[in-house]
Every structure is written in C-alpha cells, then in structure tokens.
Here is the input.
Amino acid sequence: MLERPLFVIAAPSGGGKNSVITILLEEEPRLVHSVSSTTRQRRAHEIDGKHYYFLSHEEFERRIAAGEFLEYARVLDNYYGTEIREIERIQAEGKFPILDIDVQGVQTLRSKNIPMVSVFILPPSLEELERRLRARGTENEEQIKKRLELARWEISQKDQFDHIVLNDVLSRAAAEVLAILRNHM
Ligand code: 5GP
Here is the structure.
C-alpha cells in the first residue's frame, strides 16, 4: 500500500471543496474519491457508501481500536476518518485516491510520514465563506458559527500545505488543482 503519494485536499467547510473535487473526478478518470467514514448525521441528499460510510459512534470507536484507520479526527463533535481498506481498494484498481480531509487529518498523515501531495483550497474571504455556508442551508445558526470559527483556524494553518489554491472562480481553481495533481501521476 501507498506506493504512490496520496492526494489530499483540505478547505474550510463551505469553501467550495466539494465542487472542486467533483470537477476533478469528471475530468480525470484516474482520480477516485476516497470515501471517508463518519459518525455525522447523513444530510438529506447524501448516500451511504458514496458521500460517506455512516457509522455509529460505537462502531467508529471499535474500528479505531482495531487499527482500521489511516487517519481520523474529531471535527465539530463527530468522528471522521479514512480507512486503510478504502485506500487499498482504490490503489488496487490502479487509480489515485483523492482524500477530502480536515487540517488535523493532514497533520496526522504527515506525522506518520505518509507520502502525499497536499492542497489547501482557500476561500476568497471569510465573508464569502459565510455567505456560501448560509446559502447551502444545511446547518443551523450555531453550527454555522462553529464552522466559521474552525475555518478561521484552518486558514491560519494553510502554510503547512504543499500548494495553496485560491477558489475565486471555480473552473479556474479546479484547473489549477488538476495541473498540480497531474504532475504527480
Ligand atoms: P462535512 O461535515 O462538511 O462533510 O465535513 C466536515 C469536515 O470533516 C471537512 O473539513 C472534511 O474535510 C472533514 N473530513 C471529511 N472526511 C474526513 C476524514 O476522513 N478525515 C478527516 N480528518 N477529516 C475529514
């Protein structure tokens, strides 16, 4: 496992990361989304096994204890993690996994010396981030506040990443990320 670098994309919640990743997957068939496991509640449009593997708190902790995670973190009162078997599944197909994880997850991978190419998607401003988060309408006021607070911290950590890409115009940002990843394929 891990004979190739992992492609890791992080961005504050609402930063347009999902839209960038959707374009990457459409444009480059060698890229495959690494589906994370989480204890967060499923949003109405989300599909188990596609957006996330939705697990109970107990099951997630059982898998932590069994050493099944490459990395995991507690984000906003829930667990999120990348299972080793998910990465192995994608690499066995000869494809490159794209990990959409938080800054803590990236720090964990780095501390384990796992080869990776890390990209931070930077929103144009905190005001714009707040506007996008509200427009999405999936969080209540308290959750929005928490996500904005977390975003401020995540943005302060951006210099730890190999690349920082400004998400001013979605198509331009996605093209920039794709060019970076293709350099490592
Ligand atoms: P959301 O609840 O908006 O889907 O995700 C919240 C945060 O959790 C995002 O920053 C997302 O990147 C992060 N996240 C999702 N999956 C993982 C994972 O497997 N590991 C880590 N460390 N963070 C994750």
Remarks:
- The chain is about 40% helix and 25% strand.
